[in-house]
Amino acid sequence: MDCIFCKIVEGSIPSKKVLENEHVVAFHDIQPAAPVHILVIPKKHIPTMNDVQEADLPLIGEIHRAAQQVAQELGVAESGYRLVNNCGRDGGQVVFHLHYHVLAGEKLGGLNAK
Question: φ, ψ for residue 66 (rounded to 5)?
Fold first, then answer.
C-alpha cells in the first residue's frame, strides 16, 4: 500500500506527533491552514468516511476523544477549534486515509455554502 499516513503510522515517514495511543496518531500538518493545525488519524487504514463500517464506530469515538485531548494539550480547547473531515475529491480530501483536521489558534472564518 502506498498510503503516506500508513507510512507515518508504521514510522517509515517521520512526523511531529502530539499524541499517539493504541488506536490513533495525531501530528502537525506539514502545510498548516491555521496557527494550530493537527491531523488526527486512525492507525487502521480506512480510505474515506464513506468506508467506515459499523465495527469502526468505536474508532471514530477514539478519534474524537483524541481531538479533544490535543485541543486541551495545545491550549485551544477553551478558545475554540474546528474539527474537519473532508470526504472524497469534491469534498477536498487529498490523502485517502480517514483523517480529521484540528484547526485553531486564531478566530476562524465562517463556513459559507455556495
Answer: -65, -40
Q: Which three cell numbers stand for residue 26?
A: 495525531
Q: How far is CA 85 from the centre of its chain?
A: 7
Instruction: Let me know the angle formed at the C-alpha of 99 by 94 and 101, rounded to the nearest 5 degrees.
Output: 90
Q: Starting at the edge strand that comes first in sequence, how are the strands of the sheet with 100-104 ordered?
A: 17-20, 24-28, 36-42, 100-104, 81-84
- The residue annotated as part of the active site, out of 23, 37, 64, 99, is 99
pLDDT in tens, 76-93: 999 999 999 999 999 999
Q: What is the pTM of this model?
A: 0.93
- Residue 99 annotated among the catalytic residues of the structure: yes
